[in-house]
Structures are given as structure tokens and as C-alpha cells.
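chain below, 118 aa
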Amino acid sequence: MALGKAPDAFRTIGELSEELGIAQHILRYWETKFPLKPLQRAGNRRYYRPADIALVRRIHQLLTQEGYTIRGVQKLLRDGTAGAEDTPAIPLGDGLGSAVSADELRSLRQRLADALNG
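prediction:
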């Protein structure tokens, strides 16, 4: 957290990026994918309100700790449910946020088995 700021203070994109360990370009990308609308002032400076910060934390948790895909998080945020399409993704080893859902892995396993047997 930025030194000298109250927990309910607005944060710039740089402060939020540093606080959560998320690159600024990722935060800007999330603005296009999620209902995240920070205040923008002169020069397009972004100021994240406490509600924005809470949403960013939730998105970050769902993507990195719980293994959801972008689409899965969008669905969760849209309707607040965790249906079958929200199967947590299994991260791949590249460390760049790539993920494959359990259904995609099952399909791939079946195609490989078919190729080996036929």
C-alpha cells in the first residue's frame, strides 16, 4: 500500500500496480474486459476508487489463485454464479497466464487416445 495514504483513498494506476504486483498494462486491459471504470482526469490519469480496488483484487484472486479464465471471471461477475462453464482452469507452465480448462484437457486426452488407438 502506498505510504501515507488512507486505506479508502483513491490510487493511481501506478500505485495500484505496485501494491498488487500487477503490470499497468494488465490493469488497462482488464478495464476492457470487466466492469472496471476508474475515474479519468486530465491526461487520462486513472484514479481507482476503493470499490474499483476491491474489484481488481477479486479479479486478480479469481485469475491467479482460483484458476479461472477471463471468460469465467466475466460470467461470475455478470451473474454471480459458478456454473459448469466456470470450471477452474489449470495453468500451463509458461507463467504468462495461459490456461486450459478441464473440459479442454479431457477433449485433448480423448483425441490423443483416439490417435494412439486408431
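The domain at 1-86 is CATH 1.10.1660.10 (Multidrug-efflux Transporter Regulator; Chain: A; Domain 2). The chain is about 50% helix and 10% strand.
thats it, cya
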